[in-house]
Amino acid sequence: MEKAKKLLHFLDNNLELIFGSLFLALMVIFTFSNIAMRLILRSTLPWFQELTRYLFVWMVFIAASAAIKYKNHIRITFLQTVLKGKTKHIMEMIVYLCNGIFGSILAWYAFPMLKAFSDANMTASSMPWFKMSWLYAVMPLGMILFVIRNVQGIFEEVKLLKIHASEEEKEGGDN
User: Fold this and answer.
1) Structural domain total, the chain
2) Interatomic CA distance for residues 110 and 140, integer angstroms
3) How far from chain centre, in Å, is Cα 89?
């Protein structure tokens, strides 16, 4: 049971980073290989370029949830520096809620799109073995991870808000 808990904790902290790093490494390998082939053989493999683009799409959708986890998502930093205490935590919860709603809407509409690509049995132009549904599968997956990370962010802000409130209560009780 303890090993499973440690594994889940490890995945919670590193899942997006592992996949993002893997996709980035593969992109670098494919791009470097294509450049080397162009210089040495005067020819490239078109599917390397196409697969690199697809890996980039996967990396972006997976990285969106990592950005939420590490608080690197788009935000209005001016408000973060001006707001203090409870107001700051409430604003953060509103941001997480808006992000979560946005991600939920994208995930909701991504499932029918994924089904349409799957039913159409479309393949990539230079890779007949690569089904386009594999590319589009990242949209619902990435958005579900994105929503989960936003829910985690809301819980974290609620916890910080409670801590902040208890500290204010202690300070008020000392006077």
Assistant:
1) 1
2) 5
3) 22
User: What does each of the 175 residues of the chain score in pLDDT, given as a tens digit?
Assistant: 788 888 778 878 888 889 999 999 999 999 999 999 999 988 888 888 889 999 999 999 999 998 898 888 776 677 777 888 888 889 889 989 999 999 999 999 999 999 998 888 888 888 888 888 888 999 999 999 999 999 999 999 999 998 888 877 777 655 5
Maximal CA-CA distance, the chain: 80
b/e map 91-115, b = 16+ CB within 10 Å: bbbebbeebbeebeebbeebeeebe
Question: Domain containing 106: what range?
Answer: 2-174
User: Degrees (nearest 5) of the Cα angle 37, 38, 41?
Assistant: 60
